[in-house]
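The instructor's notes for this session suggest beginning with a concrete chain rather than abstract definitions. Hand out the sequence below and ask the class to guess, before any prediction is shown, which regions might be ordered.
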Amino acid sequence: MTVRFLPIAAAAALAFAGAPASAATAPHFKIVRPMFVTIPHSARWHHPPVLNAPQLAQWNGSFTDHLGQTVNYTMVGTDPNTTNVKTTIKVFVIPLKMVFGPLNGNMTFDPMATKVGHKTVVQRLLMSPLFRSSIDYVQGGVDLGKTQYIDAYQRGNFWSAVQNHPNYHVKLGKPAVLPEYEIDVSPAAGTVMTNPFGTQPAGQMEVDLFDQQITNYLTANAATITPDSFPLFVSVNTYLTDAFAVCCIGGYHSATAGHPSGQTYAYATYETEAGSFSQDVSAFSHEIGEWMDDPFTDNSVNCTDNTLMENGDPLENNANYGDFPYTVKGFTYNLQSLVFIGYFGAPPSTSVNNWLSFQNDESSTCPGQP
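After discussion, reveal the predicted structure:
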C-alpha cells in the first residue's frame, strides 16, 4: 500500500493539471497494477475532530516484535484479552454517483442504478458476508463461529484469547444508506477508460482530488456522521489514480484526525466485471479489514514492505488478488484474505492454528522481521 502525502503545492498543481486523454484514447499510465493506498490523518485538508463528539469504540495493545521493538496499536472494538462482549459499530453507506461529462468520457457510474443479477451494487454489498452473519467460518478445523467475515477474521486474529471469550465480537451494524452523493469529475480530475484488468469501461479519478471531495462531505455532514460511526463510501466500476501516473487504486481508508477522537472512514469500488481487480466486494473486504486493525492509520510496524499495520496489503498480489469465494443465497462473492498480527512480528500463538493469515496463505513474517 502506498502512503499518500500531498504538499500544498502539489495539490494546487493537480487541481489545474491539463485534461487527461479522452475515453477514445485511454490514458497512458506509467504504472498499471492492482493497489490500495492509505491517506494519513495528517494530510493537509483533513480537519480537526469535533469537540465532545462520541468516539469510535477502540482499544490499545502492544507486542514485542522479532527485533525486540515495542509495537503499539489501536484497533476497533474492545480488548479481546480482557472482555467477552459484542461491539456493534454504526455504519453509514454513502453511494457515489461518478459523472463524467462529454469531454472526458460522457458516462455515469451509479451504484444505485447498476444491477448485478437483479440487485443493485449497493444491495449486493449489503447482502454480502461483510454484513451478513450466515456463514460458519471453520479455519483449519477450528470453528470461529457463524458471523460476519471481518469479525471472523478478528476472532481468528486473537484466537488465543477469544477461544475463552465466546461472546467476543466486533460487528458492523445494519447500515443506514444515505442519499447518493454525486461527484462531477472534471477533465482535469479524471476520465473514462477501458478497465486495465478487463474489457469494460471504467472511470478513473485522481485520488487526492477525490479524497478532498470525501472529507468535505464528512465536514458538511458532521451532525449525522459522528466519530463513533463508520462511513463507507461506495462507487462502481471506478478506479482512483495516483497523480495520473499510477493506476489502479481499488480503495483506501483514513481518518480526519488521530486517535482517539478522529472520524475514521473508508472507500472502495465494486467492479462488476468478474475476475477483475476489486471484483464485487473484494476491495471492501480489504479496506474494512484494514480499518478494523488500523482505524486511524497510525499503527506503525517495523516492516520494510509496509510501515503501517495494513493487514490486506501483503496478499493483494496473490492469485485472484488474494480473494476467496463465498456463496450467499446463490451469489458468489470474492473476499480477500488478511494477514494476522503475527505477520508483523507478534507471537504467532496469538492467532488460530498459529497461522499468519486468515486463509493460511502466508507463510512468512513481513520483510524486516527475522
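Then share the key points. The radius of gyration is 20 Å. The first strand starts at residue 2 and ends at 3.
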